[in-house]
Design brief:
By secondary structure, the chain is of the alpha/beta class. Helix content is 40%, strand content 18%. It has helices at residues 25-43, 48-64, 66-82, 87-93, 97-112, 151-162, 176-192, 209-215, 231-240, 263-275, 294-307, 316-321, 349-360, 373-382, and strands at 120-125, 131-138, 141-146, 166-170, 200-202, 224-228, 253-257, 284-290, 311-314, 326-327, 341-347, 365-369, 387-390, 410-411, 419-420, 427-434. The chain is globular.
């Protein structure tokens, strides 16, 4: 039995009413699972029009409730600041009017995307006259466990809905007020579209036991888990989950500056990849410099990073040509800083870069900067990460930037989903077979 709560808890997260009887976390989560499974059956056959109407109404509600969301977020940010959190983590939590508008626009962008449910992936005829179709279907119930970023509430709920899935959202305790305010907007949209309010549920307790209940699968109610957060959270999910997981453990992303790179482009990409937003999983954590251009390209890039406020940890070669670089340790090459810190080292050509990435990387996102198309093609072919880029910042590792409207996370595994997890990745398929009376001899 999990920990017992002693205060009233709202169980039906689709309605404002509170349940006044004491319940265990087990019972609360089991009820959420049952309601999610029932809602999933409705969503599986819901019309595209109804789902889009819910998304657009939710976007309108987010805009109308901007001040409420900002007020709740201010309380979360104040609490996190007092706890001594780093600037990068506070940035991940903080909402602004611009970020809230981006959330609303993201819901509308998802509404504008083609509905994957029911689309025919492939079809063919057999010699016996059977016509076979492979058709996209929803996964069912998706559990999303995340930390800090309240915008995940909108992105995850919207993507699950458009792909015909029910969602169970468990945000972090540090963002529970912000996430709750955003969730209320999603429920507004569902109700206005005539869809079950329990199609997108928010776990009403910050008790960590709720995470364990989700990882157990809620007696078969949950079909897949998507964790978004730090190494501790994702590691726990991957170790304990009894259902499939779409996740990446770390975002140890690399930028490789090749001998044929344009100097200005290399500098701009390296600085953007690290410093645009240091706390996201697509932020570059290691700079790799081709040995022949260490002094001509590497030193100016390191100087530009330091000028931008980045602390640079380097190997002996980098420190020999760039001022202010601190010694890097073996541990630094496999560290996800999520802060204004980067490690830098020299490698021998594209093969050396690929070897370093294979040894220390996390199969997330890597970039090469070069004007040599053949070298770029080699890098894109031999680096086995979910996302590989040529002459572009690693900060583009984002479903929205891929034209997916939004993403529910980045997957670095090799089964089912890889890279940004958008609408198509949140579906499975079934076979529809049409005959004219055939029997098998």
């Amino acid at each position: 039995m999990l920990k017992t709560r002693t205060e009233p808890v709202a169980v039906d997260t689709g309605t404002p009413e509170e349940k006044t009887v004491e319940e265990t976390v087990d019972e609360i989560m089991a009820e959420i699972g049952r309601k999610a499974r029932a809602a999933a059956r409705v969503l599986a056959t819901a019309s595209t029009e109804a789902k889009n109407r819910a998304l657009r109404a939710a976007a309108a509600s987010i805009r109308a409730r901007t001040e409420e969301i900002l007020a709740e977020n201010a309380l979360d940010v104040d609490e996190m600041t007092k706890s001594g959190a780093t600037a990068a983590f506070i940035d991940r939590l903080t909402l602004t009017g611009e970020r809230i508008e981006a959330m609303a626009a993201g819901l509308e962008a998802i509404a504008d995307l083609d509905d994957p449910v029911g689309s025919v992936i492939a079809e063919w005829d057999r010699p016996n006259g059977l016509h076979i179709e492979r058709v996209r279907t929803p996964l069912g119930v998706i559990g999303v466990i995340y930390e800090s970023r309240p915008n995940v509430t909108a992105d995850a709920g919207a993507l699950c809905l458009k792909a015909g899935n029910a969602a169970i959202l468990r945000g972090g305790s540090d963002s529970h007020r912000s996430s709750g305010a955003i969730h209320r907007c999603l429920v507004d949209g569902l109700e206005q579209a005539g869809l079950p309010a329990t199609a997108i549920q928010m776990v009403p307790t910050t008790d960590r036991a709720a995470v364990g209940a989700m990882l157990s699968g809620l007696a078969g109610a949950v079909d897949v888990i998507v964790p978004r957060g730090g190494k501790g959270l994702v590691g726990r999910v991957q170790r304990e989950a009894r259902v499939p997981v779409f996740a990446h453990l770390e975002g140890i992303c690399h930028v490789y500056v090749d001998r044929d790179a344009d100097p200005d482009m290399a500098r701009d990409i390296a600085v953007n990849a690290k410093m645009r937003r240091t706390g996201i999983c697509g932020s570059a954590e290691t700079l790799l410099i081709d040995r022949p251009v260490l002094e001509s390209l590497g030193a100016p890039i390191v100087a530009a990073l330091r000028d931008a406020g980045c602390r640079v940890l380097g190997d002996e070669a980098v420190r020999s040509v760039a001022a202010g670089v601190e010694p890097a340790t073996e541990e630094d090459w496999s560290t996800e800083y999520l802060d204004a810190v980067i490690s830098a080292c020299v490698v021998d050509g594209v093969e050396g870069a690929a070897d370093h990435i294979a040894r220390y990387g996390s199969s997330h996102t890597e970039a090469i900067v070069t004007d040599n198309r053949a070298t770029a093609d080699t890098f894109l072919d031999i680096v086995d990460s979910a996302i590989v880029l040529h002459n572009a910042s690693t900060q583009f590792a984002d479903g929205g930037e891929f034209g997916m409207g939004a993403e529910i996370g980045i997957a670095t595994g090799r089964m089912h989903a890889r890279g940004p997890v958008g609408l198509e990745q949140l579906t499975s398929f079934k076979y529809r077979v049409r005959g004219t009376g055939q029997i098998r001899p």
